[in-house]
Amino acid sequence: MRIVRYANTLVEIEADSTEGGWLVLNDVWHPRWEVEVDGRNIGQALRANAIFRAAPVPPGRVRVRFVFRPLAGSWRLPERPARPDGFSADMRRAEAP
Question: Which residues contact 23 (CB under 8 A, 6 or more apart)?
């Protein structure tokens, strides 16, 4: 196993295993950490020993990335009906009283 890159929002690791298993990163778990294995997003990082990050690793040589996405799913613009003139529904001019 070799750490390729270690940054605030990304940890990239190369792992080589004949049987596969678990990769446990001795960093604090948070629900916004996601895991990618060979470019495929496999979802949220799992907890190991209550506070650390973990990910299942298949057999062979793989690249595992822990990616922190702090705004994933928390910011979403409300759906607004489109108007034929290109303005959103809330951009209408206020009517005079």
Answer: 1, 13, 15, 54, 55, 56, 57, 64
pLDDT recorded at residue 13: 97
Regions in the chain scoring below 70 on pLDDT: 72-97
Distance CA 1, CA 21 (A): 12
pTM for the full predicted model: 0.71
Euclidean distance between CA atoms 54 and 40, whole angstroms: 16
Rounded Cα–Cα distance for residues 5 and 65 (Å):
9
Residue type, 67: V
Using CA atoms, how far apart are residues 79 and 76, in angstroms rounded to an integer? 9
Helix (H) or strand (E) holding 95: none
